[in-house]
Structure prediction request, 258 residues.
Amino acid sequence: MTLRRRTLVLAGGAGLAFGVGPARAALSPALVEAVQGWAGSAAPPRAGRVRLEIAPLVENGNAVPISIKVESPMTAADHVREIAVFTEKNPQLDVVRFHLVPANGRAEVATRIRLATSQHVVALARLSDGSVWQHAVDVLVTLAACIEG
Amino acid sequence: MATAVRALIHVPRQVRRGDVVEIRATIAHVMETGHRPDSEGSRVPRDIVTRFECQLDGTPVFAADVYPAVAANPYFAFALRAERSGTLVLTWEGDRGFRHRETTALEVT
Prediction:
């Protein structure tokens, strides 16, 4: 038992290093396609401005708190229009899409999601100038959301 | 569905003009994904909230398109710059004709 627990801790540590390290694993083609479908024909999403906060090691995939913060003054001329979240290996890659307006004052949203297995979670923001920004986090899930019944 | 729907909304009190406040909303809902088999092996039909909206005095200030990957009893938090007092109307819509509406006051001093 002790050995198993230690293995898990090690795996968690590895996952953490993975998520923040520069040599991040590439996103799956299906995820890239889903992201492009949402982002449209504009330039591909750039890294930065968006911050997805999610625990790198999740014990229960049934309700995983996430929050997304976007650097934006939220003025009429420069604001976040939409925030989208996608997963890599859930049965359906779409998770949620938030619609914002300048009256929000801050581009910060939070919710709770399901994760079927360890995977990348991606948050994207579409700004009023049409640019799209993204942040991907690699998440290790020890107990998956029950999709098997 | 004769049972009453339970929803919780949190709006800060004593908000000063110009403050950016956090609005939080949770609603009791199973969020059945439509991906799970039941004990007979057939698929449990999808039953989720698909849309959440918030309006301040009739003006949309926040909306969410919701998919099965949002956890049961969906929780959403968002920010709002309080310029004046008003009425917040929150609505949830979903499968099987699910529809719920809550009204709460935003009091700005």
Strands of chain B lie at 7-10, 20-27, 49-56, 59-66, 75-81, 86-94, 99-106.
